[in-house]
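Chapter summary example.
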Amino acid sequence: MKMKRTQIKLLSIAAFFLILFSTSCTDDLNQVPEGSNQQSDEELFSNPESYKQFLAKLYAGLATTGQAGPAGAADISGIDEGFSQYIRGYWQMQELTTDEAIIAWNDQTIKDFHNHSWTSLDVFINATFNRLSFQVNSCNEFLRQTTDAKLDGRGVTGQLREDIKNFRAEARFLRAYSYWNLVDLFGGAAIETEDSSTEYHVPTYASRAEIFTFVENELTDLVIDLKAPNSNEKYRVDKAAAWMLHAKLLMNAQVYVGTDRYADAKNLLNKVLTESSYSTHSSYEQLFFADNDSNGAQNEFIFSIAFDGINTKTFGGTTFLTHAPVGGSMTASNFGINGGWAGIRTTSAFVNKFSGMSNDSRGNFYTAGQSLEIANVGTFTDGYAIQKFKNVDINGNPGSDASGDFVDIDFPVFRLADAYLMYAECELRAGGAVSQASVDNINALRVRAYGDTSGNVSAGQINLNFILDERARELHWEGHRRTDLIRFGKFTGSSYIWPWKGGVASGAPTSAFRNLFPIPSSALSTNPNLQQNPGY
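The structure predicted for these 536 residues follows.
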């Protein structure tokens, strides 16, 4: 695991950059940092390593929450620092709102997610909106500091100049990823780039379609300067990651902009499958172990976020996803942690996706002392627990943090199994049938899950309903479910009901306007140009 330790150390060193290059707390996407100190800029960039360190901080922005570890100097104010972490906030909005996850806690408005009763005053929605803004602004500042004019003025030439070309493409990818999150969660807001003024200003509103077009154009352009698939350093993105993000955008184009782009998404996914050497790992369980950076799982990860129990301490990310689902009679040490937080479990609707599939290892539920049905949302033992993220290595040893607080599990944003299922879905939507290659790929996932061919399916069994359920079985708790349900027309309304949807034990239809989250009221008060989404 030496490579991971080296990379994480670089992320820690780079943390100080945002003190100079952005405001201490960015409120939302309608604000930008004030002009940075030019003398400090030039002093910092007199060290050639500073460019890579700054880039590392952009990647670290997906994992860390501030300048001082788990708490103490937060990037985002107005909420507990752990709740402001990028993946934790995104995960809550993508998973707690669905059949895959429900939470027992009473923290502020957290239960409103599953109830589909959130408002524009929601503190968790506001924190995620702010986190997206912070990440976009950080990427913008890196791009401002690496223009040709800046590099010429600093006399940057040779290999470093070539490396910075790659760095800039990666920064643009990370910005595009955050803008895609914004398009998916919130619709419209504002587009801020490296060309935007660094003086305080009130940006104009950009519609969902306008931001969609911006992201698509960025991905089409930036991929040229990314490294070839499988050729970049660990945790740094390559062309395959850009193809995946672009395919995600286009697969949901019918939802975002009312245009069918499945054929275009299929073409991008074909590049992922044929022009890269990513491969599925032999063990599903090990994909979510503490050593998933070195046990072979990393070969399946097209884009992942590094977490480390010593060097990226946070109460978000995979620390949250390991502690929060442990409670009741579960033994915390089996998960490589010092205790559970007794919060997250799942609904019977998700458990039923595995009905008649007792040999499917992906349905790794903890049932001892847990009831299948949820009578009381606030009682952890109501609802089966999910045993997915474990802070132990393949030999059962716990992660690097001896205290058992923080975990080493990397979070997979895009993995090859997802690409397999996306490609099959595009085939069904664009052509009406799946290819034999897709049948083989899906069965490869099922052989891994079952341990044999007993779960294999034929082309005739693979339809859109199968794909949606198989995505749940394969990708649950990885931040995909809300987007998937919306694309299939099953998130709101009455076409699919699960326990406690709409705040009712048996579930109830919810209004279609909840396919988008509201623009936070604080953002609207700061920028009168922004437009609230209908229904709020």
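To summarize the output: The two ends are 48 Å apart (CA to CA).
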